[in-house]
């Protein structure tokens, strides 16, 4: 009998967001894979989880996955966690899941914390349809992606690091327009949680005079459809 691969979400800041089920699965797993063992150590210690922990990150994911599959095939249960949030959402996990499926290994993803959901709900933008972009390409393809997203009518969600935030806001003003509505959340669930809303210009001006710390989630209002497009049949309308 093969083992099972568990994808276990961990808190994005507030340890009270850890679920009872997640703690149980981590304690019962034969092995825990962590994006950064040093980052996960305090959280695991807090919940008295003493299992063996090995690193599984973007630099060793493909090579390590072969060995992990072997362990799973011998019947061991393995739990994958990222530094924060749900594995495989802008974090390692996708490749391992895909490889496990090739061997018909059971996979179970627990529900739990992920940064973009509270940021989206806090934004006040439509939540019935949205697109998650994660981190935009750093160089190659970045401009092309902006041009593609400029006409996206759904709410858009992006992740950004603090040292690139102002540059990204400057680029958004160029490709989306300075008046496009934006909601930027940082330090979600933590003591200094903050959400700043306004036009791209207003949000950029705010962060030019305030500390830029923590990880950022940007929610961008969808483009207003062109006049001709407004008359087109809406998605989901019945056929004639």
TrEMBL record:
InterPro entries reported for this sequence: 4pyrrol_Mease (IPR000878), 4pyrrol_Methylase_sf (IPR035996), 4pyrrole_Mease_sub1 (IPR014777), 4pyrrole_Mease_sub2 (IPR014776), rRNA_ssu_MeTfrase_I (IPR008189), SAM_MeTrfase_RsmI_CS (IPR018063)
Matching SUPFAM superfamilies: Tetrapyrrole methylase
Main location as per UniProt: cytoplasm
Reactions catalysed according to its record: cytidine(1402) in 16S rRNA + S-adenosyl-L-methionine = 2'-O-methylcytidine(1402) in 16S rRNA + S-adenosyl-L-homocysteine + H(+)
Pfam family, one: TP_methylase
Enzyme Commission designation: 2.1.1.198
Role, per record: Catalyzes the 2'-O-methylation of the ribose of cytidine 1402 (C1402) in 16S rRNA.
Protein name: Ribosomal RNA small subunit methyltransferase I
The species this protein was found in: Mucilaginibacter lutimaris
